[in-house]
Amino acid sequence: MKEIEIACPIGSEPASEQIVAAAARALGVSPKAVARYRIVRRSIDARGGILYRYRIEAYKAGEDCIEYHIPEYKDVSDSRPVIVIGAGPAGMFASLRLLMKGLKPVVLERGKDVHKRKFDMAKLSREGIVNPDSNYCFGEGGAGTFSDGKLFTRSSKRGDIREVLYQLVAFGADPSILIDAHPHIGSDRLPVIVENIRKCITGHGGEYHFSTRVTDIEKRPDGSFSVTAEHRSGDGAVSISEFAADNVILATGHSARDIYAMFDSKGWEIQAKGFALGVRVEHPQSLINKIQYHGKYQPFMPAAEYSFVTQVEGRGVFSFCMCPGGVLVPSSTGPGEVVLNGMSNSARNSRWANSGVVVSVEPEDLPEYSRFGALSLLNFQRDVEQSMFRFTGSVKAPAQRMMDFCRGVVSTGLPATSYHPGAVSAPLHELLPRHVALRLKYAFPEIGNRKMRGYYTNEALLLGVESRTSSPVRIPRDPDTCEHVRIKGLYPCGEGAGYSGGIVSSALDGINCAARIER
After folding, report:
1. For helices 190-203 and 89-100, angle between their N-to-C axes, nearest 10 degrees
2. What SS3 state is found at 467?
3. CA 278 remoteness from chain centre
4. Is the bond leading into 76 cis (omega within 30 degrees of zero)?
5. What pLDDT, in 10s, does the model give residues 341-359?
6. Tens of pLDDT along 210-256?
7. Bridge partners for 282 per DSSP
8. Can you tell me the distance from the alpha carbon of 50 to that of 415, in angstroms, rounded to the nearest whole number?
9. How many Cβ atoms are within 10 Å of 231's Cβ, its own excluded?
């Protein structure tokens, strides 16, 4: 096997004859002796002419090309149950792996199914009313369903990424995610994929219980678990259910503060964990296209994206969850707080580009919160979100033009924004924690002068706050078994446990936890 690279203009693909000819030269054989080829990666190169670069594996006769096949899902109707708390990426892919090995996933999801939760999200955007169990963070598919569906993780350290990507394609994703350097699905397409995953799980004997919020987990004397959950029906009636199993996968996501409080009240080990906090930055997409394509952008080209990281006074400042051609959405999970996130549809065709730009925060940065112990950074996170709400009095976002922020000047007028609830001119340089604001003030001009000329501009709008970058709490687990360090059979998993960040890494962590139960 030889690996070759072929470049071609964006908007076209290399012809089969071109690939075979290049493969023959690399293999040192005639074109007829090229048995097959496989495209493994496609990326954009904007350094000169704007090109796609294809990396291709070429094989001659007699060489094996090992294909990936999704293992068969088994009927688990009468099999041993495993309780899976949370129906985000970690919970869904843990459940699929359980099916493969003949174990029955019983999924408990505090939010609604992927279609019903849209009504609560619309109510939040239009009326500012938060349903604490059904919103942009909670509900079938988790937060990732409505944040573009970025699948950037390519690291093989966590496991075989193909188990995630190939299943996503099987459930309806575009096959391009198998080769794109920065694959994404789009928030318009993800709901159908998430629903297809659920239908697969229930069709093979698994269970889903929506609007079912876990309120207690108890370890029984026989070693099994009793999980108590509160179910809320469509008319608002509340009933209590109890579920039993030998193993529990805890995949609640990074915003399930009640779960952390439950662990803390029981004396079960949890730890304060560093996270990142900052602002959501919105530029005209046309400006980002001009910067990233060096003035050569054409309408048929993909909306340009960006990423950066820098160090300011010993802390990282970096872009996070960049959404080209996207919109800003309210991601509050409770009343009295303002939280922003970004999302984009598969076409990425809005006139705005947005990204989180955030500063790393560690426990030692906040000695005044040390009295809260393992929940110190969680309380800091909540205080910042609530301070934003107090300023605007609603889920409208405090906002400031970028250069005004760096100069410490309140903006007299704000540019148009994609954030539906609206923005209020505010002194973000004062509302943000001082150590966060100072690092952002330094970073924005540096990025504009050294990395993306034109990025530092008053056309850019900063909106607060971007705070749900990752969990501010870690639930410690044994590195070999993935079980909680004290509670055998309990598997803290995904972003909520502090072991992943994003759809793919969370899915892989769910797979790994389910795999440990098999053993």
Report:
1. 30
2. coil
3. 17
4. no
5. 999 999 999 999 999 999 9
6. 999 999 999 999 999 999 999 988 888 899 999 999 999 999 999 99
7. 354, 461
8. 30
9. 16
Q: Can you tell me the distance from the alpha carbon of 149 to that of 135, in angstroms, rounded to the nearest whole number?
A: 17
Query: Measured on CA atoms in the order 109, 152, 331, 345, is the torsion positive or negative?
Result: negative
For the chain, the C-alpha Rg in angstroms (whole number) is 24
Cα separation, 436 vs 337, in Å, equals 19
Query: Contact 26/59 with Cβ under 8 angstroms?
Result: no
Pairing of strands 275-284, 34-45: unpaired
Mapping DSSP onto H, E and C, the string for 138-179 reads: CCCCCHHHHCCCECCCCCCCCCCCHHHHHHHHHCCCCHHHHC
How far apart, in Å, are the Cα atoms of 402 and each of 50, 94, 408, 412?
Answer: 29, 42, 10, 13
The model's pTM is 0.95
d(CA 11, CA 231): 50
| Residue that is written with structure tokens 């999970």 in the block | 333
List, in sequence order, every residue forming a beta bridge with 213; answer none if it has no partner: 230
Does the N-terminal peptide bond of residue 465 adopt cis geometry, omega within 30 degrees of 0?
Answer: yes
- C-alpha closest to that of 340 among 245, 461, 230, 458: 461
Strands 397-401 and 461-466 turn out to be: antiparallel
The distance of Cα 384 from the centroid of its chain, to the nearest Å, equals: 21
Give pLDDT, residue 150: 84
Judging by beta carbons within 10 Å of its beta carbon (0-12, 13-18, 19+), is residue 162 exposed, middle or buried? middle
The neighbouring-strand residues paired with 353 are: 283
In this structure, what token pair is assigned to residue 57?
């594996």
Q: DSSP letter at 131?
A: B
478 neighbors 498 (Cβ within 8 angstroms)? no
Dist. CA 271–CA 265, nearest whole Å: 13
Beta-ladder partners of 60: 34
pLDDT at residue number 156:
63
User: How far apart (Å, rounded) are the C-alpha atoms in residues 499 and 508?
Assistant: 10
Report which residue type is found at 301: M
What are the Cα distances from residue 448, in Å, to 284, 425, 440, 457? 15, 23, 12, 8
Q: What is the tens place of the pLDDT at every residue in 432-485?
A: 999 999 999 999 999 999 999 999 999 999 999 999 999 999 999 999 999 999
How far from each other are the two terminal CA atoms of the chain, in whole angstroms?
A: 35
* Average pLDDT across the chain, whole number: 94
